[in-house]
């Protein structure tokens, strides 16, 4: 049995079916009724067995108007139209903003069967990082950090470490 670096075992060829190479999860609109007004539907190896070991995957991103993620430096500000394609270098922090009046749909492809997704607000504020640590690294005041932790489900109080 082959074991790819992603940790998912490959199926025996005798057990492979056509269904292993078809994923229908990207045809459904994601639930955007959350604080970020966005939904990510992954088709990574955990959801789509056919990409296991291929070094590729895809995800669907539904955005309500006004979604903002994170960024460190602005390289390009570009308004995309239906059918346009844009690339981001691997690991580069980036953001998308839906400036239209209706929900937007995007598809992202990855050069990994299990790329992972890191959404900065959740990484910081749905964590158990101490509030004091977040205030020191983001320059937000403790009240703002506590409010964001309360909204996103984080814990970690103001304390010395």
From TrEMBL:
Residues 24-146 form the Cupin type-1 domain. Keywords: Apoplast, Glycoprotein, Manganese, Metal-binding, Secreted. It comes from the Eukaryota. It is found in: Secreted, Extracellular space, Apoplast. CDD domains: cupin_OxOx. It holds the Pfam family Cupin_1. Signal peptide: none annotated. Its main location: secreted. PANTHER family: GERMIN-LIKE PROTEIN SUBFAMILY 3 MEMBER 3. Belongs to the germin family. This is Germin-like protein.
